[in-house]
Structure prediction request, 349 residues.
Amino acid sequence: MSSNEVHVHPVLKTEARKFILPDLVSHCNFKLRISRHRKRITGETKRWLFKGDNLVGKARTKYHGLKAGLLTAMCYPDAAYTQLRLCNDFLTYLFHLDNLSDDMDTTGTSTTANVVLNSLYHPYTYHSPARVGKMTRDYFRRMILTASPGAQQRFIETFDFFFQSVTQQALDRAQGEIPDLESYITLRRDTSGCKPCWALIEYANNLDLPEEVMDHPVVRALGEATNDLVTWSNDIFSYNVEQAKGDTHNMIPVVMNQEGLDLQSAVDFVGDMCKAAIDRFIEEQNYLPSWGPKIDRDLAIYINGLADWIVGSLHWSFDTERYFGKNGRQVKSSRIIELLPLRPSPSSH
Prediction:
């Protein structure tokens, strides 16, 4: 591509056509573990996802490059096969939600939300012919066999927040609005879809943690620090693909817009926020109260599950083809990103 002909995104205040990623992998000292069930869940979920016409055309090809099975195996390394398989079904379904529902504009989002949430609240009595409804009922009926009532409740509630925030995101996108950083952070904590995945940590490890424990400010802060690291680092990793589509719902344009920074400075700014989120996660653990031996032991498993998500998501981001195509390994070592040219017209998600 000739640099003279590239249309710089209006938000970009720099002519630079490349940027350097922050070194988040080195900043994270948690042990990376991978479940031995990885291959098996990958095969089983694929059969489930491709059943009938659930996923067709390009979406099928994208499935292989996604490597969701690897993410699941890294984020829930201690789960038994049955639980791991369900976590993988959910994560894969979450990535493909807009392919599984017909349209994710604002009306499409609320239609999808109604089908999904009714399928979760009434898994045995609500019937929708939509494929997203069938798939939701299928995995949730399996989940409720062993998930504690609290984990089920948290899963449904946080998934509800996800849909509300995605609807808001679709409105922002339609109006081409770039929110301020604070509003963006609040919204992003829900659009990420991380919170239901935290409920799956409880499910995957057969935990039954009381509401008062899960609602404790320190436990909430740990979940929030993890969510922030996963989502903000994701904004850095996905920025190149998103800027090529003219999508501004990403922390980097938000920071450039608000702080008046050039691209590299904004990337560094968000990178420092990511490092601070990891430090915050470690620091907050010093303030945990004790609830007695059994609860403390279960809570430690849950917190380890959050740490698995931090380290797992960071490494997976270079293994999946979602952000760096087939160059992930190379990017992981060089950390240099060449900006993609802007596409002629912004394509909808």
Notes: Confidence is low (pLDDT under 50) at residues 1-14.
